[in-house]
Amino acid sequence: MKQKILFWLGHDFIHFGLAYNLKKYEELEYFAIGDVNEKIENFLLEQKMVDFKKIWFFNNYELEKPDLEYLKNFEDRYKINLWHVISTERLFYKKWNRFYEFSPEQILSIIERECRFFEKILEEVKPDFFLTNIITQHQTYLLYKMCQSKGIPVLSLSTVRFGDRAMVTEGLVWESDIEENFEPEKFPQKNSEEINEFINNYKPRKFYETVGQEFSSYKISKTKKIKAFFKFLFFSKKPSKQYVNFGRSKWNILIKGTRIGNIINRRIKEIRLNKKFIYKIDKNEKFIYFPLHVEPETVLLFGAPYYTDQIAMIRNITKSIPFEYKLYVKDHPAMWEASWRKKSFYEELENMPNVVLIHPSIKSEKIIKLSSLVITIRGTASLEAAFYNKPSILMRSDMGQSLIPSISILKNLDELPMVINESLKKNVKLEDLSDYLNFIQQISFEFPNEHLSYEVARRFNYTVGYLNEESITETMVKSFLNDYQNIFDNVTKAYLNKMKTKK
After folding, report:
1. Domain that holds residue 321
2. Which of 44, 53, 92, 156 has minimal Cβ neighbours within 10 Å of its Cβ?
3. What is the C-alpha separation between 144 and 84, in angstroms, rounded?
4. In whole angstroms, what is the distance from residue 70 CA to residue 76 CA?
5. What's CA 296's distance to the chain center, in Å?
6. Is 116 left (phi over 0), alpha (psi -120 to 50) or beta?
7. 253 lies in a domain?
8. Can you tell me the distance from the alpha carbon of 179 to that of 38, in angstroms, rounded to the nearest whole number?
C-alpha cells in the first residue's frame, strides 16, 4: 500500500519541487495544502507535473461567530493551547499590523475555521507524513501540533545557524534533541585553521550580504513602477475576504504601506539614532553585549515565545550584571526595513543608567571581540561569540549548542546573576568548537535557501505586486527546478532518509 504524503505548498516552490522529485524514487500518494496567491493557485490546479490526489487551498473563508464549546473540546482532544498558537501570528499584534486591529472574537473565529479545516483534511487523508518548510506561521504551527498529537511524523526543512546549509528534522528544529545521539569521538578533531575556514565559508553575515547584493542588483525600471502604480490605483481587484487582507484598502495602503512613506518615517528616526547612539567603543571599558532581535521574528515568536519582551529582558540583565560592567545594546540592522522601532522603545533603554546604545552600523563582530560576555535570547550571536573565544548566555537553547560548554543555557530567570558571574569566568575550548562543527556537518547539507527565494521572486515576478501580470507556466517551473537540480536532489534524499527511519 502506497504511503500518503501531505505537503504544505508555499510561494517558494521548494516543496512543489520536492514532490516533483520524489516520484523518481518512491511510489507515493500526494496530497497538498496550498497557502498561495491566486497566480500560484491557478498553476497548481492546471499543472500536470505532480499528480496530487487532492489539493486544498488555505484561507478561503469568511469569519463567523466562534463556537467556544468546539474550541474547548478541540484543546482537550489535541492537548493544544490555542492562545499559545495565536501568539505566534504577527498579524494579530496591533504593533506589527499597520492595516487592521483584530478583535479577540475575530481571532477565535479564524482559529476555529483553521481547526475544522485541518481536522477534515487529516481525517480524509490519514497521512503517513506531513512535509513542510520552515514553520514560520501560526497555521502551519497549528497543523504541526495537530499531527504531533495524532502521531503523524512532521518532517520540516530547516536552516542551521550557518548560511547556505540546511537539514531535515522531525518537528521544530529547536525542539530537536538530535545532538544526544552525536558521538564526537567518531570524528577527527579540526584544527584552528579548519575551523576558521568553515566559519569564513558559512558565516551568516557574509552570506546575507551576498544575497543582499543579488537583490540590489535586480533593478526595476521607473516605467514598470509607474505602470504598476496605475494598475493598482485604477484596475486592481478588490482584495479578497481572506483575513490577511483585512484593512488593506487602497487608501490604507497608500497612507500606511507605501515605500515613500516608509522612507520618510525611517529618515526621521535615523536623525535621532545618529545623534543619540554611540559609534566608538571604549576599549578600556568592561561591558556585556546584548544584540536586539528583529521584530517580528520567527526565532522569538516560535522559538522563545516567553522571551519576546526584549526591554523586559534587558531590564533583568541590568539588575544582574556586576557593578563594574556596562550593558552594550545594539539594534539589528535589519530593523532598517521596518523603519526602526518606536521612539519610546529607545527612550526606555536610554533611561537605564548602565545601558549604552551602540549605533546599528557598528558590526557585531567588532563588539563581540571587545566584550567580556554575550547574552542573547536565541540566534547566532552566541555561536559567533564562541568562535571569537567569548562566553555567552542563551535564554532558550538551540540545537547542538549544548555541545559548547562556554554557552550557558538559562533555566530560570532567578539564576541570571549567578549564571552571568559564572559565565564571565568561562573559556572557549578548541575541541568544543570542533565537535560542534562536526555535528553541524553531519546533520546538514548545502542548501542556498535565501538565494532560491531571490530566484523565485525574480523569475516569477514577486518583486512588485502589480507587475506580476503573466501566469506561471510549467515551462517556467521546470526551468527553475532543472537549474537547481542538484540542490533539489539533496533535499529529496534528506527527506527520504528521514522517512525511512520512521517506517
Report:
1. 204-218+258-442
2. 53
3. 13
4. 10
5. 10
6. alpha
7. no
8. 42
Other C-beta atoms within 10 Å of 13: how many? Answer: 26
Cell of 40: 500560484
Mean pLDDT of the chain: 86
In the chain the first and final C-alpha atoms are separated, in Å, by 13
φ and ψ at residue 67, rounded to 5 degrees: -90, 95
- CA distance linking residue 294 with residue 327, whole number of Å: 19
3-60 residue pLDDT tens: 999 999 998 899 999 999 998 888 899 999 999 888 899 999 999 999 999 999 987 5
For residues 403 and 386, what is the distance between their CA atoms, to the nearest angstrom? 11
306 and 373 inside one domain: yes
**In 3D, which of 407, 441, 352 has the Cα closest to residue 166?**
441
Same domain, 283 and 367: yes
**Are 54 and 95 part of one and the same domain?**
yes
β-bridge mates for residue 291, sequence order: 330
Q: For residues 375 and 289, give the distance between their C-alpha atoms in angstroms, rounded to a whole number.
A: 6
Cα–Cα dist 5/126, whole Å: 9
Place of cell 555567552: 392
pLDDT per residue as tens digits for the range 443-494: 888 888 878 888 888 888 765 444 555 689 999 999 999 999 999 999 999 9
Total domain count, the chain: 2
Q: Count the Cβ atoms, other than its own, within 10 Å of residue 153.
A: 17
Q: Let me know whether 318 and 348 are in one domain.
A: yes
Q: Are residues 74 and 121 in the same domain?
A: yes
Q: Is the peptide bond before 405 cis (omega within 30 degrees of 0)?
A: no
Coil, helix or strand at residue 32? strand
Phi-psi region of 348 (alpha: psi -120 to 50; beta: other; left: phi over 0): alpha
Q: What contacts 446, CB < 8 A, 6 or more positions away?
A: 164, 165, 487, 490
Same domain, 474 and 386: no
CA–CA dist 124, 29 (Å, integer):
13
Q: How would you classify residue 220: left for phi > 0, otherwise alpha for psi between -120 and 50, otherwise beta? A: beta
